[in-house]
Structures are given as C-alpha cells and as structure tokens.
Amino acid sequence: MKTTTILLLAVTNATHTVRFSLISIILLTIPQLIYQVIRLFCWPAKK
After folding, report:
1. Where are the membrane-spanning stretches (predicted)?
2. Structurally, how many domains does the chain consist of?
3. FRET label pair with 33: which of 6, 17, 27, 43, CA 20 to 30 Å apart?
4. Model confidence, pTM
5. Widest CA span of the chain, in angstroms?
6. How far apart are CA 27 and CA 40, in angstroms?
7. Residue 11 is part of which domain span?
C-alpha cells in the first residue's frame, strides 16, 4: 500500500511540476510574441 501511494504522489507531483513549467513557459513567451506583433505593426507607422 505504501509503495503505491508513494508512486501516486510522485506521479501527481511530476504532472503538477510539468504543468507549472508549461504554464510558466507560456506566460513568458506570450508577452514576447505580443511585443513582436506590436513591433511588426508599429514599425511601418513610425517610418
């Protein structure tokens, strides 16, 4: 019983860390993408 619970905890912990890392990556990349798009659209307007 103990080994199974430990395995379940490890699996859930791993999935949570993976999900958290994916969310953090998305949150970090989305503003950069928005900035790039804004720069692409605003660059011709400046000239």
Report:
1. 24-42
2. 1
3. 17
4. 0.54
5. 69
6. 21
7. 1-47
